[in-house]
Design a protein that fits this description.
Layout (H helix, E strand, L loop, with lengths): L1 H7 L2 H28 L7 H33 L1 H10 L3 H13 L12 H36 L3 H27 L3 H23 L3 H5 L1 H16 L1
Helix pairs in contact: 1-6, 2-4, 3-4, 3-5, 3-10, 5-6, 7-8, 8-10
C-alpha cells in the first residue's frame, strides 16, 4: 500500500494531471470566448451573456459539493493527482470510484486494502481512463454531426418548437431518472426530492413577481441547499 501511494503521488503523475487540468481550463476559456462572440448573432447582449455565465457557474456549485465529498475519500485510495485528473475530465466521482474498485479487484486486490500495490493501482488507473473514453470520443466524433442535424431541423419554424419540446422532455427525463433512483433508496430521500420539487417553482414565481433575474440564476443552487438542509434535518 505504501509503495502504491508513493507511485500515485509521484511527480510524474502530477505532471500528467496538471496537463489535463490546464487543457480543461483552456477549453472552458475558449468556449466562453466563442460563445460571447456568437452571442450577438442570436440576439444576446453582453449583460445577458454575463447572466448566462453566472447561472452556469452557480448551477455547477451544487453538484460539485457532492463530488468533493466522494473525491476526498477517493484521494486516500488512488492519490491526489489521479483523483484531480479524473474528476477534472469526467466529473463523476461515484463512477470513478467504481472503475478504480473494478480495476483493483481484477488483479485480486480490494481497493484500499493493505495488499493494494503498484500493479493494482496501475490497473485501476487504466480501467478509469478506458471507462471514461466513451463519453469523450462521442463528443469528439459526433458533436459536429449533431450540430448539423440541429441546424437542418431548425430551418422550419415547426421544427424549432419540436426541438425545444424534445430538449425540455430530455431534461425532465434526466432529472426524473436521477430523482427516481434516489427515491427508491428510502423515505428520507423521497422527502428531500419532494421538498426540492416544491421549492423550485416557488423560487421561479418569486423571481417573476419581484422582477429579480438574479433569483432565477441562483434557483438551482438554492434548491440544492434546501435539499441538503432537509436531508440533514431528517438524518
Amino acid at each position: 500500500m505504501k509503495q502504491a501511494m508513493e507511485l500515485a503521488n509521484s511527480p510524474v503523475i502530477w505532471v500528467f494531471a496538471a496537463l489535463v487540468v490546464v487543457i480543461v481550463i483552456f477549453q472552458a476559456i475558449v468556449f466562453i470566448r466563442i460563445a460571447s462572440q456568437a452571442a450577438p448573432a442570436v440576439g444576446m447582449n453582453k449583460k445577458e451573456v454575463g447572466a448566462a455565465v453566472r447561472a452556469g457557474a452557480i448551477s455547477a456549485l451544487g453538484p460539485s459539493f457532492a463530488i468533493i465529498v466522494v473525491a476526498i475519500s477517493l484521494i486516500t485510495l488512488i492519490g491526489d493527482p489521479v483523483t484531480l485528473m479524473r474528476i477534472g475530465i469526467v466529473g463523476s466521482a461515484p463512477i470513478e470510484t467504481v472503475g478504480a474498485s473494478l480495476g483493483s479487484q481484477a488483479v485480486g486486490v480490494d481497493l484500499g486494502s493493505p495488499k493494494f500495490n503498484e500493479i493494482a493501482f496501475t490497473n485501476a488507473v487504466w480501467v478509469m481512463c478506458l471507462g471514461g473514453m466513451g463519453w469523450l470520443l462521442f463528443v469528439a466524433l459526433f458533436t459536429k454531426s449533431l450540430d448539423k442535424i440541429q441546424t437542418k431541423v431548425a430551418r422550419k419554424g415547426n421544427n424549432v418548437t419540436l426541438l425545444k419540446a424534445v430538449s425540455t422532455a430530455a431534461m425532465i427525463g434526466a432529472f426524473s431518472f436521477l430523482g427516481g433512483s434516489e427515491m427508491i433508496k428510502g423515505v428520507t430521500e423521497s422527502i428531500v426530492l419532494i421538498a426540492a420539487f416544491l421549492v423550485m417553482p416557488i423560487i421561479i414565481m418569486l423571481s417573476k413577481k419581484l422582477n429579480a433575474s438574479w433569483l432565477r440564476e441562483w434557483s438551482l443552487g438554492l434548491v440544492i441547499l434546501v435539499g441538503l438542509s432537509v436531508g440533514y434535518l431528517l438524518s
